[in-house]
Amino acid sequence: MPEMIDPDHVLPRYYQLANILREHILDGKFEPHQPIPSERQLESLYSVSRTTIRQALDLLVRQGYLYREHGRGTFVSPQKLQKGISELTSFTEDMKQRGIAPGQKILEIGMIEPPDKVRQKLELPPECRQVLRIERLRLGDSIPMGVQTSFYNLPEGQTITREELEQFGSIYIILQEKFHLIPTEADETLEVTLATPREAALLQIEAGSPLLLSERTAYSQYRRVMEFVKILYRGDRYRYFAKLTR
Amino acid sequence: MPEMIDPDHVLPRYYQLANILREHILDGKFEPHQPIPSERQLESLYSVSRTTIRQALDLLVRQGYLYREHGRGTFVSPQKLQKGISELTSFTEDMKQRGIAPGQKILEIGMIEPPDKVRQKLELPPECRQVLRIERLRLGDSIPMGVQTSFYNLPEGQTITREELEQFGSIYIILQEKFHLIPTEADETLEVTLATPREAALLQIEAGSPLLLSERTAYSQYRRVMEFVKILYRGDRYRYFAKLTR
DNA sequence: TAATCAAACTGGTAATGACCACATGACAAT
DNA sequence: ATTGTCATGTGGTCATTACCAGTTTGATTA
User: B193–A210: do the CB atoms touch at under 8 Å?
Assistant: First the structure.
């Protein structure tokens, strides 16, 4: 059991330990459904207290890598359960996880007078008159995957330019660097709809083809709405994944 | 701050405390975005250690009722974020949560030779020759919402009859009472498809109408696959909800 | 041989005490 | 008026110790 814990590391010890154990699991050093060393054994193996051990194990259990059985031990989850906990990801990250090369074409970007639905979703105060709207064609391996329209309530007078977006690629990076906004949680709904002629042309499919419509409201670290996003996915090329727990 | 903690209660103290605080939040005794008492204050308010306090708060943070800010305090989440973390629910529970009266019509129930896809999804051993298949029409307020086909790998020789299913209503209750199987986790995928003539007739829509196809694999408390379910939802009547976190 | 039971594991809960990192506001120095 | 500093309050991490509650195992008993 190599790799020890450095008490002076920037990362807390329970976090380091979780990383080490996760690596072992992913490397297959622990078999699925087999027990890992008991908490008391780990205590002496890594010379940290049981408090710290349990903090690390808690993390890995929440992440789906381990499961516990009272009185029996802590066991490795089978592969199926290990990945893809419902995570808040951008289109870019989503594609990368699937092994598809993400791409985009910015169709339109600019400040607009928000329609009622957007006002409501962004929980805008009455005095707010302008929001940022971005419309993009999203590509996977250079093939159109969906049309994304997103709305942001930025500080008075501020905005994001097409150049900035093209340079950074991800809007989340800009929001973080420029406005210190980090998405932490989101509500998403999915439903079925049919392509309008315009959408069909953009997605290179026939008008009236079925689409998967995702609407997402994302919240910042301050628990305020930070964005509202609508994505129309091609029904024949996109599948949504979710992981559910009790 | 009424309601104290009973050290001799069957529920652990951190759990009792979480219940008390959750009630306060739901009753509106704490305002959204306002801080709750600090951990040291709660310590003396409820006469339990900070360990216990933090365990209770951890629970409520994971459940979406509270959020923490280092150096500032622990705050009440706005209503929007408090409910509906992606939970593993049956069709029946799902409908109830939406305020719709669930109903069902059993189309077919019986043991069958599993097709390859089902073998794979249920992770069946080669010697297994029979699985339980149930096909049901699902109703919401007496209107067809979807067609559900589910598969179960039951112990050799065992089965579930139409009468049992009609009597209990929920298959999960039977699985729990008769076989001690409890679902704890599931993987779900969603995609778009078009109704076949048969499906269209069952759902009282036109053939070729868009449908939302959900495929779910549920795992038992022993981390074994316990069911595989396909549901075809009417595209015009069903919307899927998810809650995402970082 | 089979049933019983106690010891020795496992994870679960809890108290106590300590120190760190970050945020805030009061106050002094500029 | 502005800036800097520091005390104090917040949550975050960690060690230590103790006991409780399930599970497993093996010796003991009938």
Answer: yes
